[in-house]
Amino acid sequence: MDFKGFPGLAGKTAIVTGSTQGLGADIARGLAAAGANVVLVGRNAPAGQALADELRERALYCETDIGQDEQIERCIQAALASFGRIDILVNNACQYADQGLASSRAQWHATLDTNLVSAAIFTQLVAPRLPRGGVVVNMGSTGGKFGAAGRAIYPASKAALLQITKNFAVELAPAGVRVLAVSPAWTWSP
Prior knowledge:
Helix content is 42%, strand content 16%. It is α/β, with parallel strands linked by helices. It has one domain (7-182): NAD(P)-binding Rossmann-like Domain (Rossmann fold), CATH 3.40.50.720. The longest helix has 22 residues, at 105-126. It is globular, with a radius of gyration of 16 Å.
């Protein structure tokens, strides 16, 4: 990803969930290339640390299970301690476990917790630390806009994420914080 056309990113600090691989790692690389500090969030410590080493002083890897509120708070505190500010939250982490109509209750709970609830809680906990001009970017999906046979949980989670984006945008607007969603088409990921 190329964010070099966004000079306003220089010196900003971004937290990117799910940034130890795939799209999240590419987002982190793009932000760092544009001059932003990046807090890499994920559970794959070797991959996260390797990316932090690649991005050098612009990056901090924070091993975090986003399903645990205290770990989210610890990550936020680490970002503030390392970079002194948080300007951007990118809620990118997700899982794709989905058997459509045959999906179990446990699969529903696990996927909704990662793809929807954890993004909402991360936003809730970071919002008071975001300055005027701060932004929350939720990674939606075209899958949240259209029906697909054999799928249920992932598209439902992304449709719900698009809706809470609208709600949080209205709620955080008076504080000068923007909340928006980006809905990529199919992307290949490990």
